[in-house]
Write a sequence for this structure.
């Protein structure tokens, strides 16, 4: 059973804040594409499929969205 998900617009805002703080980069500078519908969700996180700028597929785990 999956847990409720957070709307992608909120996920993106959270990622922008965190990636700016950690890498000093915007999400669009790191990823070519991120699927807005999560692959799954659990009590503390949800996972989105994404692709790095070089085309490498990645799973992006987003937790503790404030």
């Amino acid at each position: 059973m999956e847990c409720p998900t957070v709307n992608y617009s909120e996920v993106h805002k959270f990622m922008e804040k965190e990636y700016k703080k950690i890498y000093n980069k915007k999400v669009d500078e790191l990823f070519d594409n991120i699927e807005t519908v999560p692959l799954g969700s659990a009590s503390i996180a949800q996972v989105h499929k994404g692709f790095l700028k070089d085309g490498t597929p990645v799973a992006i785990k987003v937790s503790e969205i404030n």
In short: The radius of gyration is 12 Å.
